Batch of 2 targets.
Target 1
Amino acid sequence: MRPHRLEHSATRALAEFVCGIDKKAIFLRRAIWWAVSALLVASPLPGSRYRVVLLRLFGARIGEGVVIKPAVRIGCPWLLSIGHHSWIGEGVRIDNSVGVTIGANGTCLATTGAVEAGSVPGAFERPILIEDGARVAACVVLAPGVRIGRDAVVTRSSVVTHDVPMRAVVIAAADRPSERRLQRRALV
């Protein structure tokens, strides 16, 4: 006996919804966001307040006293949460097809870093949590699913693929010269 098949119209109606949200509505929201983001949020124009207002209009949860510098690129602001008195540096890219939470009280993402919560849809989509007071330096990449602990520091050019404990310091491998290279230099 063949399994029961849904009628074509019912199948089509189900296919148009993702987790109770109409796919057309999602597409329209993203299209409007991409236009607004390209023109205003990711622009080199100075000012932070209008960026915060625009992000809130698109569903971001942003605390008081947050500074968002020019040329910041955010994938889905409706999946972004930023605590009070945090700072997002110039050129930071937050690729978030899933949630990204950035803590409060001086949490800082420095320039040209990348937060990759969902860089490959469906495959590597895991939320990122940056806890209160954490500092993430310039040119850092945070992989999907990482958690940066309270008051932790991630130094320049680091690639973080595992959780960082509270008050830990992550030093990029490129920042430490290898012994082999030092020995080779001594011989020349």
Target 2
Amino acid sequence: MKQETKMRLRRSLRLALIAAALGAAIGFIQLYMQASPSSEQGQSASLAIMPRVGGEFTALDQDAALITQDIFQDHYSLVYFGFTYCPAICPTELQKMTAALQKLENHAPDKAKQLQPFFVSIDPERDTPETVKSYISLFHPKFSGITGNPEQIAHLKKLYHVFAEKVWNEEADKNSDDYTMDHSSYIYLLNPEGRLLAMYRMKDDADKIVKDLEQKIANL
């Protein structure tokens, strides 16, 4: 078997295992969300037994200003982890977030005002604040960007259970920037305390996300 074929098989197996693990985690979360009562007390109870996501961190925003976990406080947050060099999946998901927010602005403007979208880079070596700022300008104007040094981003990935790793192009020097990123792809919905409310998959379209946002975002 050719070396190239072996490498592709190993990569496919690794991605399959990752997908299975992430799928199990998402299924666990969704079961509790579906089983939770609609009352305030019931919602609090269901959130209390969901897997912990988030925590204390420091990073940089798109203007290179220092930020902390407080950036996810006092509003609902729609968060996506990706990278600016992503050829297809990341821009597709960010465009879906843009479409969902635009639809929410039309259907429920008071709820849309409470929602802040974020793009979090998983590629700190290439995604400088300036690069992230230019990238998010292609999507909804409310987008905020988050990046940082490798240690800060590694910590963020751990807090939010994000898988991401470099995959170098064949025969590329592993000290070069000739690589792409394998990564999990979910959109996180956080409540105004920064706690997880929902996770949307790639197959969830903008209409489905909007319907869920209208249910989960509290009226002013």
